[in-house]
């Protein structure tokens, strides 16, 4: 057996496991079903990975490593210079682009996002630990860059708006059919460049908005209490 064969077997197992976890759910998929689908024996899975959870952790490590390297490389290139857009848009695109499209594997990017959604729903603690381990350090770099580009916002404002960016990001990649149904097919998230451009514009507008003034909310507790007192 050549040195490349064990590596190829391991990659095949990871590819099949990722697809099955994303489509069928983490709980519903067994190691045995993975081995059947990838035409490998169960000993090969245990040799390379040891357990279903280790398989999941290796999928996260493989995907997140590529995403984070690409994100940080793009972030390092963000700067004010002729012919470039505003720095805020550059930073947002640097964060989003690598997860929207990976070289020769756009479907893999979407599948990994669906997998993250599945694991978050089925195994909340495991998901939280995996996200923290593989993404927190890079996310903090981007939060700092966004804060530098939005000096009118407090740290609290930036964290909330980054949180909303994450929500839009996850939903767009994990449930792309929703906007197609609402728009009658006019908007198609499979057009990754269009989806990316729209999300960058949306997020940039959100980060540029003034700090939150809760007193302006129509149903803020203080406003509701005052209305009751005057009735």
From TrEMBL:
Entries under InterPro entries matching the protein: DNA-bd_HTH_TetR-type_CS, Homeodomain-like_sf, HTH-type_TetR-like_transc_reg, HTH_TetR, PsrA_TetR_C, Tet_transcr_reg_TetR-rel_C_sf
DNA-binding region extent: 30-49
Naturally occurring in which organism (per UniProt): Bosea caraganae
Name of this chain's protein: TetR/AcrR family transcriptional regulator
Keywords: DNA-binding
Domain of life of the native organism: Bacteria
Gene Ontology terms for molecular function: DNA-binding transcription factor activity; transcription cis-regulatory region binding
Annotated HTH tetR-type domain residues: 7-67
Pfam family, one: TetR_N
């Amino acid at each position: 057996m050549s040195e490349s064969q064990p590596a190829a077997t391991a990659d095949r197992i990871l590819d099949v496991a990722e697809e099955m976890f994303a489509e069928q759910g983490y709980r519903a998929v067994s190691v045995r079903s993975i081995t059947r689908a990838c035409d490998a024996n169960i000993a090969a899975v245990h040799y390379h990975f040891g357990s279903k959870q280790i398989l999941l952790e290796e999928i996260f490590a493989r995907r997140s490593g590529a995403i984070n390297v690409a994100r940080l490389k793009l972030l390092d290139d963000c700067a004010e210079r002729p012919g470039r857009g505003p720095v805020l848009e550059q930073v947002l695109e640097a964060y989003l682009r690598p997860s929207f499209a990976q070289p020769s594997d756009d479907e893999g990017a979407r599948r990994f996002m669906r997998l993250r959604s599945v694991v978050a729903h089925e195994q909340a603690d495991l998901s939280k630990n995996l996200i923290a381990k593989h993404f927190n350090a890079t996310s903090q770099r981007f939060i700092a860059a966004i804060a530098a580009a939005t000096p009118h916002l407090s740290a609290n404002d930036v964290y909330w708006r980054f949180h909303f960016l994450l929500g839009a990001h996850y939903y767009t990649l994990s449930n792309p059919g929703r906007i197609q149904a609402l728009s009658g097919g006019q908007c198609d998230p499979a057009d990754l460049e269009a989806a990316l451009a729209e999300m960058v514009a949306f997020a940039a507008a959100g980060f540029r908005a003034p700090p939150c003034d809760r007193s302006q909310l129509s149903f803020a507790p203080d406003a509701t209490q005052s209305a009751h007192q005057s009735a």
